[in-house]
Structures are given as C-alpha cells and as structure tokens.
Amino acid sequence: MSFNIGLSGIKAASSDLNITGNNIANVGTTGFKQSRAEFQDVYSASVLGTGRNQQGSGVLLANVAQLFNQGNVTATNNALDMAINGNGFFVTSNNGAMSYTRAGYFGTDKNGYIVDNNGYNLQGYSVDANGLLQSGVVTNLQVQSANQAPKATSKILETVNLNSSLTPPTTTPFNPADPTTYNNSTSVKVYDTQGNEHAMTQYFVKTGPNAWTMNVLIDGRNPADPTTTTPYSVGMTFTAGGQLNLPLTSTDFTANADGTLTLTNWTPAKSNGATPPVWEANGAAANPGGVTFDLRGTTQYSSTFAVNSQNQDGYTTGQLASLEVDDTGVVFARYTNGQSKIQGQVVLASFANTQGLTPIGKTAWVQSSSSGEAVLGTPRSGTLGALQSSSLESSNVDLSNELVNLIVAQRNYQANAKTIETENAVTQTIINLR
C-alpha cells in the first residue's frame, strides 16, 4: 500500500510542478491567467463502509483551477491594443467559432477588419450608412479606410460683441481694401459640395447710435456674382441694453421667423491666378438648402470688439489619420480634416462561472456547460469592466510566489520518493528473512 501512496504523491507533485512550470513559462504572456493545482486525500472504501480509524490511501489531483484576477495594465503605442480593466472577455470569431480572450493584441487585416494576432475577428456592434451604431447586431468589426466625403456648409453660428463706444467711419463708401471704411471685421471658413474652402468675411460698419451694417463677401467677392466685389448687406439695430433686435433686415439674405438668416444664392468661385485675377464659378455648388447664418447672440456693449464663438458644420474631404477607442469600446476614425466617425463598438462577454471556461490555448477560452452561456454587453455596462486603448493586460502570474511553489513541489516530490525508497527497504528486509 505504501508504494501506491508514495506513487500518488509523486504524481501529485509532478502535476504541481507542471502547473507551476506552465505559470512561470507564461509570466510574459499577455492576458494569461495562472492556474492552481487543487488536491484531495484518498481513502479506500470497505464493504461495510469506512471506519473512523481508517488509514489514507494517498492523494489525487482534484482540479486545476484558473485564477481570473486582474493583471497589470501597461501602455503600448498601438491604438488598437486593448486591455480590459475589470470583468469581461473579448469575443473573437474564427469563421463563426467563438472564443473568448483577455489578450488585446488587435490590428486590421487587408480588408480593414479588426483581428487579433491569430487572425480571428473581433466582435462588436457595427454602424449603418449614416454612422449610427446598430446595437444588438453583433458582427465582425471593420474600419472603413476610404476617404471621408466633404460636407457643404449648411449652418454658421456666430456670437460677436460690437463696441458701442465706437463712432461711424469718416471715410465712405465701404471698401474692403480700406480699413478706414469699416469698424471691425472677422472671417469664417465655409465649404462647397466638393470640399473647397472659402472665406466668408463680415465687415461691421457703425451707422449711428445702436445701428450697424454688416457687409458680407465670400473670397472677397459678391456671394452670387463672383465677378463683382459688391457686398451683401444686413442691417442690425440694438436695444438700449445692447441686445440685438430681431428680425434682421436684408434684401440679400432670406430672413427666417426664428431670427436667423439664410444665404440661398451663393455661387462658389475660384480665381484663375492671373494678374489681375479673373473670378468664375468653380463647378461646385453650395449646400442645396442654403447656408443658415445665426447671429442672434450678437451684442453691443462698451467693450472691445470680440468674436466670442464661431462654428460652422462644413468640412473638406479627409483621409484616415488614426484610430481611437474610448473606455466604452466605441471605435473612432480620425481624419485629416479634423473630423471623426464612429466605426463600431467592441462588445465584451461575461459568464456566470468563469472557472468553468475551457482553455483551448492561444490565451483563449470557450464556453462549456459549467461556465454557462456568454452574456454580451458593452464595456462599463453592468458588471463589465472599462476598456483601455493603447494598452495590454499583463499575465497575472506572481513570479516570486511561483518560484516558492516550485521549491515546495520539488520537496514534495523528493519526500514521496523517499516514502517509496523506505517501503522498498522494508520489503527487501522481509524478502531477506531466512
């Protein structure tokens, strides 16, 4: 019997050595989760059951448990490297076969799909043609690498303060080339349907107490007729408290009921570069619905002329410049025109019993009957952790502990071998009896 007891101890110690050695071997493996050997004692059953004074029959390996505690998160230079800070697993698909991993090595393949270092597709929510997330539709995430189409300016929002203490210019008539004919000016970029950039310049001319005229040129030309420099004009009056009176008055702009203006007859133009230059239509068009000009926040106070805010919604064409992933898993494409576009959202999986997952190698697991079904959700939702981009989760192996375990397992192996050696000596003594 002692031979079997010692043999079971050697097998147990050998298993412990293998498990500890595997942990040590994977101390540098991203997303690796250490294992732990769990042993049980063995007692032989008799016909009438076990007695209270029964001797043990050895040891057996009851379970190899995986410890899913958090590993350290380290920064990288790859925007698509991802680490999960908290609960959850990345979901990857190998031609439809789902696996789950904490190793966030991700990049794009030749078709723009986000894949891990095994070529498996990262799963998430896709976007429709308008860039809206299709929540509930889990599929292979893909980055659209095509240039972003330009957008013609449709709205300009501007907040300006005009200095009430200024006096009307003494030089007339208005001449954009002569600063003495106007009090202040500012410009805003506008874009046509082909993404060409134009400068809309506003010249503010004080005409009397609480009264101003705003002259508007695009590229220094008349908005509708680029062959002339005659500006469009808007009359602006203010209350005694410095607030803008609405509606504004203009024969060149369409006055809207909400107090905004709309430019409906802009002809985008270009110069031929000659001296003197000849201006002509550039073949593009303005936004079909016109350009809405919102000046309702304009004030007239006794302070320096200031443009407090200025925004417009157009942009030129853009090339893909970089990718970013936020902590909720939303993947953004950044373009050279300063715009961004959602490409999709990463989903994570959680399980009722993570210990029940079946390891399949390559730092991945698959679900089993013990783990339960995968529950999918987005990072930071429910019990799922946050996503950290440009980061990787290191192995959770504590090397110092594993080296101590290695020594203990070695001693256990030697001690059990000594048990067999002693039993052999005893048996040899019996055999040698005469």
UniProtKB/TrEMBL annotation:
SUPFAM superfamilies (alphabetical): Flagellar hook protein flgE
Q: Say yes or no: keyword Secreted present.
A: no
- Location of the protein in the cell: Bacterial flagellum basal body
Give GO terms for biological process.
bacterial-type flagellum-dependent swarming motility
Q: Whose protein is this, by species?
A: Pseudomonas mangiferae
**Where does it sit, as one GO cellular component term?**
bacterial-type flagellum hook
What is the top-level taxon of the source organism?
Bacteria
Pfam families xref list: Flg_bb_rod, Flg_bbr_C, FlgE_D2, LlgE_F_G_D1
This molecule's function is given as: A flexible structure which links the flagellar filament to the drive apparatus in the basal body.
What family is this protein classified in?
Belongs to the flagella basal body rod proteins family.
Residue stretches making up the Flagellar hook protein FlgE/F/G-like D1 domain = 83-130
Recall the taxonomic lineage recorded for the source organism.
Bacteria, Pseudomonadati, Pseudomonadota, Gammaproteobacteria, Pseudomonadales
Protein name (database record): Flagellar hook protein FlgE
Q: Does the keyword Oxidoreductase apply?
A: no
